[in-house]
């Protein structure tokens, strides 16, 4: 009988999160799928995944990542045994930095760095009980090169990569790897505010000539979660079509 595998996918209701869930489920993973607002998306997704993969387990987890000082022990206690954490949650605020409020900045850091760090501290002992365990962040190319109009977001994504680089060194000796998959431009709802002309102009800047599809990001998460991936840790992998990095 194959080894039981369970991953916690945070931000599972987003376009990239949904693709990660489908890709991991196809690879034999059971999933805990976190959401905040989009319960309907998760409910429908679980129904479909259970139909496709009846021998695996799929459950939902409602959690607001912008809320500090949560009881992370209780949250994770309801998730069963798990070998992987995937942090795909996150939003951006597209505006000049001087127009970005302090609360917006705090929310971005809480959602995409502080809450994940707290969850990781709580989960570390359980993860390290497994011979192969994984943590993957969905970062951004802007964490490496920065983006005007997304200064706070770029700062958070850069901080994710710095955290991963440092933390991976602490836990590398016993099979826990920690990495970032940093997409370039991806065809998701985050880009819905841009016009078709804007998106066409963006595609012209990308050497492969188009934006990525979510499944082209999800495959790298699947590869990092494989048992054969023990030797890659502390890295930010830029999946950008040859664009900025």
Automatic annotation (TrEMBL):
Top-rank taxon, per record: Bacteria
UniProt xrefs under InterPro entries: NAD(P)-bd_dom_sf (IPR036291), SDR (IPR050259), SDR_fam (IPR002347)
CDD domains: SDR_c
Pfam families found in the cross-reference section: adh_short_C2
UniProt record similarity statement: Belongs to the short-chain dehydrogenases/reductases (SDR) family.
PANTHER family on file: 3-OXOACYL-(ACYL-CARRIER-PROTEIN) REDUCTASE, 3-OXOACYL-[ACYL-CARRIER-PROTEIN] REDUCTASE FABG
Protein name as it appears in the record: 3-oxoacyl-[acyl-carrier protein] reductase
Provenance organism: Lapidilactobacillus dextrinicus DSM 20335
């Amino acid at each position: 009988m194959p080894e039981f595998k369970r991953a916690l996918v945070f931000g599972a209701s987003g376009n990239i999160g949904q693709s990660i869930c489908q890709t991991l489920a196809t690879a034999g993973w059971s999933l805990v799928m976190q959401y905040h607002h989009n319960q309907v998306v998760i409910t429908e997704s679980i129904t479909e995944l259970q139909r496709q993969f009846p021998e695996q387990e799929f459950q939902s987890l409602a959690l607001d990542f912008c809320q500090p000082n949560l009881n992370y022990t209780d949250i994770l206690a309801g998730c069963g045994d798990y070998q992987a954490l995937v942090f795909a949650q996150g939003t951006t605020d597209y505006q000049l930095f001087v127009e970005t409020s302090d609360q917006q900045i705090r929310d971005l850091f809480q959602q995409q760095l502080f809450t994940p760090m707290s969850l990781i501290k709580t989960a570390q002992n359980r993860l390290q009980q497994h011979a192969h365990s994984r943590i993957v962040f969905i970062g951004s190319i802007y964490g490496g090169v920065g983006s005007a109009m997304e200064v706070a977001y770029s700062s958070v994504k850069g901080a994710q990569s710095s955290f991963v680089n440092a933390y991976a060194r602490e836990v590398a000796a016993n099979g826990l790897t920690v990495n970032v998959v940093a997409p370039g431009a991806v065809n998701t709802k985050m880009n819905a505010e841009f016009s078709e002309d804007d998106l066409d102009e963006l595609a012209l800047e990308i050497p492969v000539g188009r934006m990525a599809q979510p499944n082209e990001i999800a495959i790298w998460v699947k590869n990092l979660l494989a048992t054969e991936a023990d030797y890659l840790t502390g890295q930010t992998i830029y999946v950008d079509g040859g664009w900025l990095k």
